[in-house]
Amino acid sequence: MDNVEDAGGETTESEDAEEFDVDEALSEVGFDADQSVLTRRQAEVLVLRERGVRQSRIASMLGTSRANVSSVESSARRNVEKARETVAFAEALTAPVQVSVDVGTDLYDVPKKVYDACDESGVKVNRTAPELMKIVSDAAGDAIQGREVRESLLVGVTTGGRVQVRRSAE
């Protein structure tokens, strides 16, 4: 078994990774290699890593090197991020409310633009103005500095009221 340090600094033994049933774990989460952007090996590495198994232990289990496990994990995480971005793009395309936020816009003006567009489309957004500003600011990252929008943004609202923020290509 692996020795693991717990929150109090105590060393305890974790579940023996050799006894961990990767196939069962993949089945439990509904992994289907034919439908996934991940290879089976990438999924195996991710499921083990998410269960706290060290890369060196995974390498031993899979009969490969720790460097290879690191590379597989890195590729898997990039693929997951690409899949998330693809889903966000597809949802943005179909969002009934899409508000363009131009460079130079004051962040404090964004909620009114979103509320007005939602009213026109009959879409309900259950967010206060400060919540909307935080969502936009957090999602936009360095595209907003202070209260100023520095890169064009697209704020979408789904029929369910979920707010999505994307940087526009303009």
Automatic annotation (TrEMBL):
<dbReference type="GO" id="GO:0003677">
    <property type="term" value="F:DNA binding"/>
</dbReference>
<feature type="region of interest" description="Disordered">
    <location>
        <begin position="1"/>
        <end position="21"/>
    </location>
</feature>
<protein>
    <submittedName>
        <fullName>Tfx family DNA-binding protein</fullName>
    </submittedName>
</protein>
<keyword id="KW-0238">DNA-binding</keyword>
<dbReference type="Pfam" id="PF14601">
    <property type="entry name" value="TFX_C"/>
</dbReference>
<dbReference type="InterPro" id="IPR029291">
    <property type="entry name" value="Tfx_C"/>
</dbReference>
<dbReference type="InterPro" id="IPR004645">
    <property type="entry name" value="Tfx_DNA-bd_arc"/>
</dbReference>
<dbReference type="InterPro" id="IPR036657">
    <property type="entry name" value="Tfx_DNA-bd_sf_arc"/>
</dbReference>
<feature type="domain" description="DNA binding protein Tfx C-terminal">
    <location>
        <begin position="83"/>
        <end position="165"/>
    </location>
</feature>
